[in-house]
């Protein structure tokens, strides 16, 4: 082979290698491996940061008719293998009733709640999350997890590779100091775990879940600064009739904003003698 052909062949091989490198690192229009890591590494970076203050609002309402509720407040969360938090509900509103305040503490694997608007027969202020409590209607229950950031960041971390790769966008409204924007449209064709069980009381109330949409804003340090989640849940009537379960389809929209990363957070369970032994916690008359 002549020297000219050898040089030409080498150039062709080199160009082919460059093309292969470019294709393998782009993978999809508008996506990149770095963007994918930003999204799917959300949980691990929160754990590395240690803690955050999280402001939240949440709303769930029926498509046609039924109970509705809104939540607002702030959580101080300590991230770890077992997340712990101290959450203050500045307002829980059930069907237009006057807002009530509340507090939820997650210490270890136990969650305890209290509210000046709720009372137990034995007069103790706190009750375990497993104790039935009436907050105003079925939807106004903190155990639905609508205001729990850790429920939703877990889904982001498990976003499949190609879906995460395609999620980077510049179409969302800007959030200060959070330059990286993502919109994840959860569909079963791309994610076999979508829609997933929520791991909250939503799973007991509804038969089906619509496909969630997650919108996330992440800063240059890889920390999530804002998260919005929209989804639907449906009681299709496939289970035995239960008058306590809401009927039809419901829409939910949740917003979380995060700051104060790394600030020490102390979470303490209430003393045992302040936790009710009553079988039911009622709303005060």
Q: What is the β-strand count? A: 14
The overall pLDDT, averaged over residues, is: 85
Mass-distribution shape? globular
Show unreliable segments. Answer: 1-30
End-to-end separation in angstroms reads: 97 Å
Cα Rg: 24 Å
Contiguous helical run count: 6
Major beta sheet summary: 12 strands, antiparallel
Organism: Actinoplanes campanulatus
Protein name: LppX_LprAFG lipoprotein
Quick structural overview:
With 285 residues, the chain is an alpha+beta fold. The protein has helices at residues 3-26, 33-40, 42-49, 149-157, 161-165, 202-205, and strands spanning 51-62, 69-78, 84-94, 100-107, 110-114, 118-120, 126-128, 168-169, 180-185, 208-209, 213-218, 224-235, 248-259, 281-283.
List the helices and strands and how they pair.
Blueprint: H1 3-26, H2 33-40, H3 42-49, E1 51-62, E2 69-78, E3 84-94, E4 100-107, E5 110-114, E6 118-120, E7 126-128, H4 149-157, H5 161-165, E8 168-169, E9 180-185, H6 202-205, E10 208-209, E11 213-218, E12 224-235, E13 248-259, E14 281-283
Antiparallel strand pairs: 1-2, 1-13, 2-3, 3-4, 4-5, 5-7, 6-14, 8-9, 9-11, 10-12, 11-12, 12-13
Organism: Actinoplanes campanulatus
Protein name: LppX_LprAFG lipoprotein
Keywords, separated by commas or semicolons:
twelve-stranded antiparallel β-sheet, 33% strand, alpha+beta, two-stranded antiparallel ribbon, 20% helix, 285 residues
Description:
This is LppX_LprAFG lipoprotein. The protein has helices at 3-26, 33-40, 42-49, 149-157, 161-165, 202-205, and strands spanning 51-62, 69-78, 84-94, 100-107, 110-114, 118-120, 126-128, 168-169, 180-185, 208-209, 213-218, 224-235, 248-259, 281-283. By secondary structure, the chain is an alpha+beta fold. The strands form 2 sheets. Strands 1, 2, 3, 4, 5, 7, 8, 9, 10, 11, 12 and 13 form a 12-stranded antiparallel beta sheet that branches. The chain has a two-stranded antiparallel sheet with strand order 6-14. A hairpin with a 6-residue loop joins strand 1 (51-62) and strand 2. Mean pLDDT is 85; it is low at 1-30. It is built from 6 helices and 14 strands.
């Amino acid at each position: 082979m002549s020297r000219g052909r050898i040089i030409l062949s080498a150039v062709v091989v080199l160009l082919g290698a460059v093309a292969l490198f470019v294709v393998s690192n782009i993978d999809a229009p508008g996506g990149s491996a770095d963007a994918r890591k930003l999204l799917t590494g959300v949980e691990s970076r929160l754990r590395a940061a240690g803690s955050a203050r999280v402001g939240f609002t949440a709303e769930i309402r029926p498509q046609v008719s039924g109970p509705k509720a809104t939540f607002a407040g702030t959580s101080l969360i300590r991230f770890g293998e077992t997340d712990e938090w101290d959450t203050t509900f500045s307002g829980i509103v059930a069907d237009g009733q006057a807002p009530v305040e509340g507090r939820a503490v997650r210490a270890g694997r136990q969650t305890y709640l209290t509210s000046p608007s709720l009372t137990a027969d034995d007069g103790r202020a706190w009750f375990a999350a497993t104790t039935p409590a009436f907050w105003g209607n079925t939807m106004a229950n903190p155990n639905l997890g609508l205001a729990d950031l850790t429920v939703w960041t877990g889904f982001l971390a498990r976003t499949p590779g190609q879906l995460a790769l395609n999620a980077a966008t510049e179409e969302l409204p800007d959030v200060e100091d959070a330059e990286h924007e993502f919109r994840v449209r959860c569909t079963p064709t791309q994610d076999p775990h979508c829609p997933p069980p929520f791991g909250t009381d939503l799973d007991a109330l509804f038969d089906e879940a619509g496909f969630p949409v997650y919108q996330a804003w992440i800063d240059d340090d890889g920390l999530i600064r804002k998260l919005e989640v929209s989804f639907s849940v449906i009681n299709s009537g496939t289970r035995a009739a239960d008058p306590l379960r809401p009927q039809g389809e419901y829409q939910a929209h949740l917003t979380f904003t995060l700051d104060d990363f790394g600030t020490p957070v102390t979470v303490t369970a209430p003393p045992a003698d302040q936790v009710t032994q009553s079988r039911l916690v009622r709303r005060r008359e």
